[in-house]
Amino acid sequence: MSAWRPRHRLMVGIWGLVAALVAGLLLAVAALLWSQRNAELAEQAKQLSRVATGAEVGMNRTLLALDVLLATTEELLAGAEGRDAQARARAAAPLLAAIARQNLAVRSVMLLDESGAPLVTSSAAQAGQADLPPADFIAQALATAVPMLVVGNPVLNTRSAERVIHLARPLRLPGGQRLLAVAQVPVDGLVNVLLQGMPQSHLELTLERAQGALLIGLAPPQGLMERAHASGAPLQQLGAPGGAGWQGPTRLRGEPGLVAARRLMYDDLWVTASLPREAVLAGWTEQALAIGGAALLLGATMVLAGAVAAANIARMQSARAVVAQSKALLDQALGAMVSGFLLLDAHRGVVQWNPRFEEFFPWLSAVMQPGVAFRRVLQTTVHYHLPGASPEAKRDWVEQRLQAHPQGVLEQRLPSGRYVQITERPTPDGGLVIVYHDVTELRQATAAVEHLAFYDPLTGLPNRRLLLQRIDQACTQCAASASHGAVLFIDLDHFKTLNDTLGHEMGDLLLQQAGRRLQAGVRAGDVVARLGGDEFVVTLLQLAGDAAAAREQAQAVADQIVALLARPYALGAHVHHGSASVGATLFGPVQQSAVEVLKQADIAMYEAKARRGNAVCFFDPAMQVSLSERAQLVADLKQAVPGGQLRLHLQPQLDAQGAVTGAEVLLRWQHPQRGLVAPGQFIAVAEESELIVPMGRWVLQSACELLARWQGDARLRELCLSVNVSTRQFRRADFTDTVVQCLSASGARAHRLELELTETLVLEDMNDSIAKMHLLRTRGVRFAVDDFGTGYSSLAYLTRLPLHRLKIDRSFVQQLGESHSGDVVVQTILGMARNLQLDVVAEGVETREQYDFLRAHACGSYQGFLLARPMPVADFEAWLAARSRA
Questions:
Q1: Is 802 within 8 Å of 777 (Cβ atoms)?
Q2: Is the CB of residue 119 less than 8 Å from the CB of residue 131?
Q3: DSSP letter assigned to residue 573
């Protein structure tokens, strides 16, 4: 009976375990299915959010383009001749039609007077016969206090029998007259913007107002749905749901599902994307059926396993008891094996030891037995501890170890390379307990700390601290022996570009390979070190006593290093072709400090980099002078803006008929001592020292003030000024605010200001460039691509940017008539610009042959020494006045 009870309890425990496992399996399956369901909902919500975001971006872009189109008409009307609104409208009609044709989404553009009567339309129909928007829409658009885009409800075009949406923007003429610019957009065109070319089964898309008024509704399979209101609560009452969508009725069919909504940049307009819950969870339902079946099969298997275990429970009962007892003894023994120990009696005989002791000293396995003398143990050990030593030395070591060290700690290195710390403590009966503790990891950690202090952890080379010590020692030795040494300062060319493109892991791999190549490329005894980043230093020792011969030896090693570092690098799946700039300096009989020598090599390295790298340059005292002059130039340049030393020069731009259309703003520096400094001498320094930002702001502000002053002169007010924008200036977060502030403070007309950007600048961060350019374009500022043809010159970015014109780089213009390829490039640029309806200005026109070629191929504008050189503002105004009198 007493044996049956434990067995019964064990059986109950087994079946309880089986029940718990089955229950746990069911719970796990339920949790898994629930998690998968949530994951499916989350994934579908993300996809739905991306669809809504795509529709939002497309609709914002379309509405912004239409807004810019309508806003541009105000500039056209302001520049049109005529005193009343009707005359201005008639004068601007051809340009209005051209603008409307540029936007494929617009059916027509019309201008209405304050009473809602049509003045002019971009279509072929007469203004009086135009299909007008509803009267309430016209009244709503004219009633807006601030000029803004107003979007109407879909209506039927009586002429084309298609549904259209009217967009309007009120205009204010210089005389105070108010007009209304109205664009008629087909609903079908906006449907393609919503779909973004990616229709999806069961997907519902809407363009609606915050209160639920439906402008466009798309739902499969019927497509476009004509309804007045969307299903569910108004979007405004839902508190602008987040980007992942929310669960509720779909906006068209009203079925339970997921909905993602995005507020457009124009008030009261939203886009939504909806999916019914049945479509969202279709895949999850199939998975749930499969997983549920597998779970049932696994549960049955668990029950069968429990039955088998219960059948063998009797035989396992006795075995478990034996195993439990053995495990308790084994745990006790393992607990005593942290360190090796040896117990000796009062006569220094062995009493007891543990297996850990035998692990430390495996050669003692045949010697160790109770009662063996400790002397014999040591005599056996000394042959392994001191191999090759004399008998006298071995005997002395044994006698020394036999002396007790009750307060001392010994350390012994084993033949295996590990270190043990030996601690001896006496016992009350006169015996001795010796404990052997493995301290290998502690020794390794200590060595690692020392290595980190003097060696680079990435390459294993000496670091800056150890390098300076070695150079100091080498300088002292050379001064004492009247010999020479050399320091080579090595910098890998374009290493930052590699890090930015392939990542820091590839950069670290390159540094490691470069370090190994340097070690292989120098002589025995020379020192290779890494200062940090991509900078290495090689110290050459024991060079010739003659300075010229020592220089030749250092030059040979440096050339070999340049060749080694120029070989291709295998960086995983990438092959990198690199180069290096090497600065070299000699030290010898005259005592120098390590810091001074290293600084000279560093200066020589920068001179090698200035020569486009992949070269060796020896230090010359003139280099120090050049650096000092550059530092003085930076110091003087800091006073250029506050000291009023900057000047504007203008180079005229003429059209094909010879009329002056504008000028490019060029910067000059009038220094009190240096005189008039050309841009080539200080612009690069300003770029590197961040001084280009305040200088660029000064140029922009001065150009705006000049445009504002010209507005009162009939000969000058229609001229445009082109201002170059640097990369550092454009990438600042406050660039657009700076331009707007300069325009507002000066009162200059924005459409007379043209900002010139290089292709490289625009493509560095395409999204940032587009955002800033679009924002300024809505203000009227124009943009041109400077030095076009020297970069990517791709339609892929030209079509995305709000550009006004292209500037053909002077390098192509100068090749005209001399190189067939140059002629083809210029013709290609002109044809590309013509197809994109962009103006073109050719810069650097210096010969009549170049001018005739460009004019024969319909180039729009010209700039160069043949026509006029850059001149101060006063000279430019006088030159223009003289032309008008001629």
A1: yes
A2: no
A3: T
532, 524 Cβ separation under 8 angstroms: no
Residue 175: count other Cβ atoms within 10 Å of its Cβ. Answer: 9
Helix/strand/coil percent split, the chain, to 5: 50, 25, 30
Q: Using the 8-state DSSP alphabet, how is residue 216 labeled?
A: E
Output phi, psi for 66, to 5 deg: -65, -40
Residue 866 backbone phi and psi in degrees, to 5: -60, -35
Using one digit for the tens of pLDDT, what is the confidence trace for 633-674?
777 777 777 888 788 999 999 998 889 999 999 988 888 787
Q: What is the number of other CB atoms lying within 10 angstroms of the CB of residue 538?
A: 26
How many angstroms separate the CA atoms of 160 and 187, rounded?
12
Q: Is 822 in a helix, a strand, or coil?
A: helix
CA dist 241 and 824 (Å) reads: 55
Q: If you compute the radius of gyration of the chain from its CA atoms, what whole number of angstroms results? A: 43
Q: Is 153 exposed, middle or buried (0-12, 13-18, 19+ CB in 10 A)?
A: middle
CA–CA dist 602, 594 (Å, integer): 12
Question: CA 498 from chain center: how many Å?
Answer: 13
Residue 690 CA, chain-centre distance (Å), reads 21
Give CA torsion, residues 55, 59, 60, 63, to 10 deg. Answer: 180
Q: SS3 for 591?
A: coil
CB 105 within 8 A of CB 138: no
Tens digits of residue pLDDT in 158-207? 777 788 888 898 988 776 778 888 888 888 888 888 877 555 678 888 88
How far, in Å, CA of 621 to CA of 661, rounded?
52
- The burial class, CB within 10 Å (0-12 / 13-18 / 19+), for 312 is exposed
Query: CA angle 773-775-780, nearest 5°?
Result: 85
Residues 6+ apart with CB under 8 A from 651: 663, 664, 666, 863, 868, 869, 870, 871
Q: Taking each helix axis from N to C terminus, what angle separates 735-746 and 692-710, rounded to the nearest 10 degrees?
A: 30
Helix extents (H) in 487-566: 495-502, 504-521, 547-565
Ramachandran angles phi, psi of 478, nearest 5°: -65, -40
Of the candidates 319, 293, 316, the one whose C-alpha atom is nearest the C-alpha of residue 14 is 316
User: N- to C-terminal Cα distance for the chain?
Assistant: 133
**Angle at alpha carbon of residue 827, lines to 822 and 828, rounded to 5°:** 95
Lowest mean pLDDT among 193-197, 211-215, 874-878: 193-197
